[in-house]
Amino acid sequence: MWQASPAVRRFLLATVCCGVVTTGCALASAVLLAHIVAGIITDPAGRTLAGWAPQLVLLAGLWTLRTAAQWLQNRLSQRGASGAIADLSARVLGAVTATDPRTLAERRDVTATVVLRGLDGLRPYFTAYLPALILAALLTPAAVLVMACFDLQATVIVLVALPLIPLFMVLIGLATAERSAAALAAMSTLQARTLDLIAGIPTLRALGRARGPAGRIAELSAAHRRSAMATLRIAFLSSLVLELLATLGVALVAVSVGLRLVYGDLSLATALTALLLAPDVFWPLRRVGVEFHAAQDGKAAADRAFALIDDAPVTQSGSTRIDAAGKTIRIDGLSVATRAGLAPDHIDAVLEPGRITVLTGPNGAGKSTTLQVIAGLTPATAGTVSIAGVDVTELEPESWWPQLSWLPQRPVLIPGTVAENLALFGELTDVEHACAASGFDQVLAQLPDGVNTILGRGGVGLSLGQRQRLGLARALGSAAPVLLLDEPTAHLDAATESAVLDALVARARTGSTVVVVGHRAPVLAIADAIIEVDCRVAV
């Protein structure tokens, strides 16, 4: 995290400074208070309160400064936690979205859980655990050293009892880490199933199966509850053990000091100093053990987040700019490896401007993947895709992507108005013509607020066919010279399909490069070139 987030670096530096101030004030106030109390008891002159005023003012000042340092540390911890969570979330989203669409779909649920809920568990890690850990690293050894200056025998007792606390912390921490990982896995599964259920409620209700997944969701919820309760049980038991060890350590010091004080082997000021410093030796470690459990959920989520970041491919964006208008796209021996084999397997094709090229073949052959390689979204395992002799991997994405109009099988729709979805990838050149060519003008006439109608997540509010028409209107209205359309006439009736195909032919005749994935006879009929896409299944 030190390397990943500037906010973490600022937070740790500020926490160390506050810890140094807190440590100095704690030790100085303990020594001063011991000498004030011893002086009041043993002072033969019987000084009045005014006589002790300088020492009392200094003691109050130390307590005030310690309180201010702790308040500042808590305030900085909240800011540091917010900054670290934001930085890490941004890195996770950047790393995951840099992957190809297939990998992105596989990691969607885990990423959503980590970013939306898991990383929030880092707040106790930054606000409680790390400050306690830093204070333990500063205050405990400093208190032992100061105690050694006054009473070596009490120091030896403390050093014997002190290692027991870290030992039990390690043993308890190992068990808690496993419980936290199990709880995070249960939460990820539960959230993924819940999101899928919510997204599919309209379909389930239409089929009369809306109550079917309820039992499975209840089982997952119970598993998550059992895992969380097991973690809490260990946390409470470990807190009891740590409190007992710390209490015994302080008690041993108190008994030793008391006996030597009775026999006159120790002065009252020294005895009180050792007695007041003993809790400062054990308290920071005890606090680390208590806060450790609250930080484990966030730590498990952070480990998962860094795993997602590390698994992201290291990509280097090209720097070449090229005008795609009127340029030929050449595919030479293109192959992409998948879990099942190669899909596609060794494609050779020439995509010429002013012509419609149709990619056809069986399901899973790699037709959609071929479009993704052309767009520069998926890397090729073998072969190349080039335009005017320049490999697409060498093209600058900021200049290449605006020259593409890509329509996937499921058009991307965001929560917002219809107008915002039409202009999602840039303003359209002729909205009315694009809507008429795709048949979306008929849909607009049926919507209550026209282009100002608000859509939900994924286009909720429109049917599949209406969503397809909206995506087509967005693609046909783009001025991009290269059109990549993945089954553009799916979910359309025959009349609308015919109108869309006529619009594609007209667009190609203006000089655009049109690449269509399809297997229906009407789509194949408009093709100037048909490319058979095949795959190779791994044995």
Structural description of this entry:
The protein is α/β, with parallel strands linked by helices and 539 residues long. The chain is built from 18 helices and 13 strands. It has helices at residues 6-42, 53-97, 101-106, 108-116, 122-150, 152-161, 164-199, 201-206, 214-262, 268-311, 367-375, 397-400, 418-422, 431-438, 440-446, 464-476, 494-509, 521-525; strands at 329-335, 341-342, 347-351, 356-360, 382-387, 390-391, 404-407, 416-417, 454-455, 482-486, 513-517, 529-532, 536-537. The strands form 4 sheets. A 5-stranded parallel β-sheet has the order 7-10-11-4-12, sandwiched between helices. It has a 4-stranded antiparallel β-sheet with strand order 3-1-5-6, with helices on one face. Strands 2-13 form a two-stranded antiparallel sheet. Helix 2 runs antiparallel to helix 5 (122-150) and helix 2 runs parallel beside helix 10 (268-311).
